[in-house]
Amino acid sequence: MRALLQRVRSAEVTTGGKTTGKIGSGLLVYVAVAADDSRCDAERLAEKVANLRIFADDAGKLNRSVLDEGGQVLVISNFTLLADARKGRRPAFAAAASGGAAEPLHEAFLHHLNQQGCRVETGAFGAHMEINSLADGPVNVIVDFPPATRS
Predict the structure, then answer these.
(1) Over the stretch 76-132, which tens digit does the pLDDT of each residue have?
(2) C-alpha closest to that of 75 among 1, 150, 137
(3) Per the count of CB atoms within 10 A, which of 2, 39, 43, 92 is most buried?
């Protein structure tokens, strides 16, 4: 699984003109499921997202997690994070799991993130979504599980 975490002051996702998820200060997390991912990867990624220290403490150092800050997370399914654009002009998505294989692992990630204590909002899996966010920092982190072995 690959996730792009963005620290935000606010974020909102709409699908078909209807808001499906909205948060204040927290994390906007784009998640892609690879063909070889497992439920263990979903659990480990959720633990990492919940506890990664990318929020500033009183001294201005990145020592606080989203849980320390109130646990607001907006999760967006995003298979294009696994794009391979090394050749040609059109990215390849061969590393991404099919929708049928990816959705249960995406749901497992959401479940484990909730279990970590995060307040989770989400978009609509596999749908066209519009995301509005106000970046904070900017602070963006890419996390891979299993760790960066993919191209």
Answers:
(1) 999 999 999 999 999 999 999 999 999 999 999 999 999 999 999 999 999 999 999
(2) 1
(3) 2
Give start and end residues of each alpha helix (H) in the chain.
39-51, 99-115
Q: How far apart are CA 34 and CA 98, in angstroms?
A: 8
Tell the CATH topology of 2-136: D-tyrosyl-trna(Tyr) Deacylase; Chain: A; (3.50.80)
Bridge partner list, 7: 27
Q: How many CB atoms lie within 10 A of CB 16?
A: 10
pTM above 0.70, yes or no: yes
Q: How far apart are CA 12 and CA 28, in angstroms?
A: 9
Alpha-carbon gap, residue 137 to 148, rounded angstroms: 25
Single-letter amino acid code for the residue at 67: L
